[in-house]
Here is the input.
Amino acid sequence: MSLFKARDWWSTILGDKEEFDQGCLCLANVDNSGNGQDKIIVGSFMGYLRIFSPHPAKTGDGAQAEDLLLEVDLRDPVLQVEVGKFVSGTEMLHLAVLHSRKLCVYSVSGTLGNVEHGNQYQMKLMYEHNLQRTACNMTYGSFGGIKGRDLICIQSMDGMLMVFEQESYAFGRFLPGFLLPGPLAYSSRTDSFITVSSCRQVESYKYQVLAFATDADKRQETEQQKLGSGKRLVVDWTLNIGEQALDICIVSFNQSASSVFVLGERNFFCLKDNGQIRFMKKLDWSPSCFLPYCSVSEGTINTLIANHNNMLHIYQDVTLKWATQLPHIPVAVRVGCLHDLKGVIVTLSDDGHLQCSYLGTDPSLFQAPNVESRELNYDELDVEMKELQKIIKDINKSQGVWPMTEREDDLNVSVVVSPNFDSVSQATDVEVGTDLVPSVTVKVMLQNRVILQKAKLSVYVQPPLELTCDQFTFEFMSIPRVIQCKFRLPLKLICLPGQPSKTASHKITIDTNKSPVSLLSLFPGFASQSDDDQVNVMGFHFLGGARVTLLASKTSQRYRIQSEQFEDLWLITNELILRLQEYFEKQGVKDFACSFSGSMPLQEYFELIDHHFELRINGEKLEELLSERAVQFRAIQRRLLARFKDKTPAPLQHLDTLLDGTYKQVIALADAVEENQGNLFQSFTRLKSATHLVILLIGLWQKLSADQVAILEAAFLPLQEDTQELGWEETVDAAISHLLKTCLSKSSKEQALNLNSQLNIPKDTSQLKKHITLLCDRLAKGGRLCLSTDAAAPQTMVMPGGCTTIPESDLEERSVEQDSTELFTNRRHLTAETPRPEVSPLQGVSE
Here is the structure.
């Protein structure tokens, strides 16, 4: 058992879906029993009144039937319950119940039972007051210094204090400047009422001032009559606390001093009788209720403060003495004597969890046995330590820091893509131009071996592909872990059969080491004609209008992909390579390989980079201009407001015309920024598609491994979204510069250079294009991509056709910058405007 967890002595749950608040709990000897034991009185907003006297057989027992002394349905919501001397002619304790339109005083008595059912309790109505105004809360005390009886003061929702002298109504007074009711308390030492107004200040009103002030029924008198009568309600003192108060309690040290405790939303105040601050405590959490009580130390006060984190804090003045955890968030807390147990903490939550608890833990009777002591042999310990260190060193050498043993995952994720499209498309935009947009159903299956908590499933596809739902949360991982599962979507989701084109602006050729395969076998369902002599030509039509043509050579082992847009080439190229690999794997061929021997189409790639960068610069200028116009618009508004507030009318000097013109400029600039953002999004999508194609061609050109291709993808595609603060150009430039100065460096001198730690938008793209060209040059000369800098020395390699040697000297490199377009001649390749994840086209990722 934790030392800082409240020990459950007795607990119960009240009713079914009932609600409670801070005034619904009271502890007192309401039946005036001779033993003086407190009873728990609870009222609910459903109108039920319950009285408990807990007698648990052992600690932690729940409520027994005999613990409930009385349960009555009062049929009206119970706002507050209090126990005091409310009946004239006797000093016995009676129960006061406040309803929204009624105040009732009851006597609770018990009759000794003669049978096994125990004692019988009953509640008798002594008197009641029907209220003309809706009540909020009440307080009681010996108003005016009377002895032997308690008076009741009720605060209404419209700010009226109604005083009742037991069975009779005394008077009513309106609080000045009232807006909303606040907590109310009575100080017997100063004979005053203390509340917190809507102005967020503590206010004190003397009872004598209230009694002699103008009656509430005469509130309609003129101000002059009130001044002449001398009966205005004047506040005794005020203190601004700067926040709304949750509750007020008044505690007396002795006969000569008392303190006013105010619980705010973020602070806890202790005030003197005259309103001066004795001390205050800033709270780091949101409190729910509190209860001050006298401390055993002279001159100090203990305070229980509960918060919304299920914690109960005990303060001695401003010093935290104890903190304990509760099973619920209490809205009311009391301390009393129950069943001869003093200092029981009683808490009540808003949904009816009533608990009696105490602090600390039960004593443990277990005693650890004595352990036989023996002398240590340090020589044997040294030998054992050396053996263990050797084992640890050998394991680290063989498998690294983390063991790589295979084990069954606690959670497995698998994805099944439906082979057929949905009969009714679930797409947001059903049509794109003249093309209908289809949709496909993807089933994600989760298999777990152990019970998991709060498992979250996210599904991601690259735009413009969209999901009907991308986030799923299951309320059924102790240690945070991430599991990914990648899946491919059907090509027909964004591509339809089309007429092949004989001419195109951009072309790329893929070489293979096997005989050409019929395109009908690779792309079933995409052929627009069935002639046998036309199976080597196939056309593709993307949703939105782009067209791509695929040709298979009849004599050589080559495939050509061509299109009018460079970025549209990537999707069909990547899909062709994947389907060729799958085709030959089914045939049992293991040595199939693809290669690219043409020129790197860097010029077309650089054009897309320039277009994207130009849109970024344009967006930055538009946002700066919009900010300037917004500042100008607010300045004109302030000028006009000052003119309108001026008591002496003055001409506007065309400020209204200037305001209207500035407003139109702000709207036009906002539309331009929004349009530029849309164009930038499309440009970034095309740039990512072109980047995928460049990485694919570099991998085929230099026969890079999967790890090396992954390094290129990490360098060229670091961002899923492009923003003004962190853009693609500066991020990729920093990544490529890092590769050039580490694994692709020519000497150790380049490796020693430090990169700039800040990423800022560049002035132009010349530096980025130079680094991309240099990266291709280093790879052509045998550079090897790796995460370590050990293998940075260039190796001799046969250059493919179309690539000329790039000089190594600084002078020659400067000439390379000027004529880089001559090194890599124009070739055309494209990614379908449909952007895809970095791994493969039409692929999704679930994690």
